[in-house]
């Protein structure tokens, strides 16, 4: 089947629930209304790149809940990291969070996710779709970047630049209660003292409508002391915003650049990535310094 | 000027007016500060991705916004050819207590300055109308506003770069390309850009 000089690509036989191309995103353009976007779990995504010998910023596939099936046009190395799932090359089981050799014409399949939400598939050479504003990330809020991956599409793969490292590192997927460290946000003084105590001491459940824009949470209401309307203002990743319905949400990478509801707290950037692996119903607690 | 917390790597600065926010943003741009993102808004400027907060705080103490006069970016005035046939033109004229033709004359006779962008890529909040001509948003947003629609909300005028839901009061439409992700400068209107709407029949 393989022809000398044939371009390297991955044919998508099944795109699963939601698969997007992601890299480190488009920071630096928020003043134009452009969201940051980019992989939600940077630790898992960059590990996948290291395993296959890519530069850290190479584009990977972010796959929600698994079910991704790809056919490689040429021999490549892949690595699947992040959420726990079975990985097969053809019928042969392959290692999760390890460098996996895929012969030309072989099929790589990512099973259903057992724990966590998002797995990352890196391929040696990186996913080489055309960048938009310096990034290959699909921004699900603004629509910038490549389209969501669909079954039947063909994803170009760049030339491999280094030998795969082959090293295996543990894939840290949170289990049980997730504790998110946070500090006060710009409008913490718009909330009652009770709201601050409630956020610091209560359990919140991840809502089913969580997505790349934000982790939406159900739990005790967070009463405001200032009830006026807030002029829209800039948002950071990890901002804990409390909209009119009182359900807090933690903004993730596809968040709008500005928002008109008060931000009570900000989750430490080193903990925001853990939000990528939380499922509806999972319990979240906030810890103040 | 008040510095508000926004997490370990960011600072939010609250100021008294949109003009002060625009002035602070312009000063920050000119100072070439170390920050990944500097995001102006109606009453605030967010500094995100700040490696050294004490350096930024020292710079903030040195900035003088008292002479804040709508700072403009170089590049002259961007003219947007506009057809004034919007669904809310008559309502806006009524709110302004004038005829639709007079309302168009006010809108075309104003040189606006972009204070900030938000809502979607390339959506610019343009200032320049006097405060007494502020108009409330629609009570219920339209599910779909076509790309190029020219609208008013609060103290701002703006153009929808692409079709989206929206609650701004629509005066008309322009076929100017507001956003081109492939261009070196993707947004036609960015903070500091001067804008004039020019009436055309189309």
Describe this structure in words.
The complex is a heterodimer of chains A (289) and B (202). Chain A is mainly β and 289 residues long. Chain A contains 3 helices and 18 strands. The radius of gyration of chain A is 20 Å and the shape is elongated. Chain B is built from 4 helices and 13 strands. Chain B folds into 2 domains: 61 residues, Gyrase A, domain 2; 123 residues, Beta Barrel (Cyclophilin). In chain B, 44% of the residues are buried. Helix content of chain B is 20%, strand content 31%. Chain B is elongated.
Quick take:
The complex is a heterodimer of chains A (about 290) and B (about 200). Chain A has about 290 residues and is mostly beta strands.
Give the assembly state of these chains.
heterodimer
What Rg of chain B, in angstroms, do the CA atoms define? Answer: 18 Å
Number of strands of chain A: 18
- Shape label of chain A: elongated
Helix content of chain A: under 10%
Individual helix count of chain B = 4
- Rounded to an integer, what's the Rg of chain A over CA atoms? 20 Å
Tell me, what's the shape of chain B? elongated
In order across it, which strands form the biggest sheet of chain B?
A: 7-6-13-5-12-9-10
Query: What integer is the average pLDDT of chain B?
Result: 93
The first-to-last residue Cα distance of chain A is 59 Å
Q: What proportion of the residues of chain A form beta strands (DSSP E)?
A: 25-35%
User: What is the N-to-C order of secondary-structure elements of chain B (H for helix, E for strand)?
Assistant: EEHEEHEHHEEEEEEEE
User: What's the CATH superfamily of the largest domain in chain B, by name?
Assistant: Cyclophilin-like
State the share of residues found in helices of chain B, binned by percent: 10-25%
Question: Helices, strands, pairings?
Answer:
The complex is a heterodimer of chains A (about 290) and B (about 200).
Chain A (H helix, E strand, L loop, with lengths): L8 E7 L2 E5 L19 H10 L8 E5 L3 E5 L3 E14 L2 E3 L5 E3 L4 E17 L30 E3 L21 E7 L8 H9 L2 E3 L7 E5 L14 E2 L4 E3 L7 E3 L6 E2 L3 E5 L1 H4 L10 E5 L2
Parallel strand pairs in A: 10-18
Antiparallel strand pairs in A: 1-4, 1-9, 2-3, 3-8, 4-8, 5-6, 5-7, 5-8, 10-17, 11-12, 11-18, 12-15, 13-16, 14-15, 14-17
Chain B lengths: L1 E4 L4 E5 L3 H14 L5 E4 L3 E5 L4 H10 L14 E7 L5 H8 L3 H9 L3 E6 L6 E4 L14 E4 L3 E5 L2 E4 L4 E3 L2 E6 L19 E6 L3
Parallel strand pairs in B: 5-13
Antiparallel strand pairs in B: 1-2, 2-4, 3-4, 5-12, 6-7, 6-13, 8-11, 9-10, 9-12
Helix pairs in contact in B: 3-4
